[in-house]
Specification:
globular, 60s Ribosomal Protein L30, Chain: A, alpha+beta
């Protein structure tokens, strides 16, 4: 069974503009895997540079659209990984994150990383079932 790289309108193009050699989402069988999703404005494709709450909402909305485009959804996420540039941001990240998983949380790992060259402080990747 081959993997399927799925192009997501606005989001895939935004990721390509960042220069990252990645696909927004790949489907393999009944699994869907996203890239580390940055905070992308779903209308303009630009990076959302607001506070961490605004960035987290933008990331989770981009993930929602990406997963739905691939035939899945946030309620089918089984594993998430959250990357932030400062562990002190996690309380605000968690407050926004909770609202997107009202029926139970997927397994999750969170990691603080050195800031990258892009103007945002968070990425979230996930694995979901179809």
């Amino acid at each position: 069974m081959p993997r399927e790289i799925i192009d997501v309108p606005v989001i895939s193009e935004a990721i390509r503009r960042l220069g990252a050699p990645t696909s927004a989402v790949v489907r393999f069988g009944d699994l869907v895997m996203t890239c580390g999703m940055p905070p992308i404005d779903l209308t303009t494709g630009e990076i959302v540079e607001g506070d961490i709450r605004a960035q987290t909402r933008a990331v989770l909305e981009a993930l929602r659209v990406t997963l739905e485009h691939a035939g899945s959804s946030l309620d089918k996420v089984i594993k998430a990984t959250v990357y932030v540039t400062d562990p002190g941001l996690m309380a605000d990240v968690n407050e926004v994150y909770r609202a997107y998983f009202p029926d139970g949380f997927p397994a999750r790992t969170s990691a603080a990383i050195k800031p990258w060259a892009q103007p945002f402080d968070i990425e979230i990747e996930c694995v979901a079932i179809v």
